[in-house]
Amino acid sequence: MQIAEKKRFLKRERLTLQNDIEQLFEKGQAFMAYPLRVVYVSGAAQNKVVPGLSVLVGAPKKRIRQAASRNRVKRLIREAYRLNKGALFEACRQSGKYIHIAFMYVSNDIRTYTEMEKAVRKALDRIRKKEICSDVC
Q1: Which residues form a coiled coil (predicted)?
Q2: 108 near 62, Cβ under 8 Å?
């Protein structure tokens, strides 16, 4: 994979299938990386599933009423993910695993990009250590 491709957020990285989303919330493991609640599920990539990451980003209307503010929060989370996914993405490809991740925003106010990036980086590191390093390390 080329360096330029690592920093992109492609359509195939978005978690869109209803069955995958239901499986994520039914069987997934959850933890907090404030201001995010992170839910993830992993497994071995088979015929239909390509090794790598799939991401879902959500900001509830109950907490952030204005649509423009919700969109900004989701955009900040996606940008932080896009810039920090490299290590986990490569580890998934090498180990032949897939990981579906949901980032759900839980704060009542809009945080800065720095806080959002710190939370996303913390979440991705925790997932990598738990899922990839437990098998390899």
Answers
A1: none
A2: no
* Whole-model pTM over 0.85: yes
- Cα–Cα distance, 123 to 104 (Å, whole number): 12
| Sign of the torsion formed by the C-alpha atoms of 42, 48, 52 and 53 | negative
Phi, psi of 97 (to 5 degrees): -110, 160
Residue 121 lies in a domain: yes
The answer, yes or no, to whether residue 88 has pLDDT greater than 50, is: yes
35: in domain? yes
The arrangement of strands across the sheet holding 29-33 comes to 29-33, 36-44, 97-105, 52-58
Identify the pLDDT of residue 4.
46
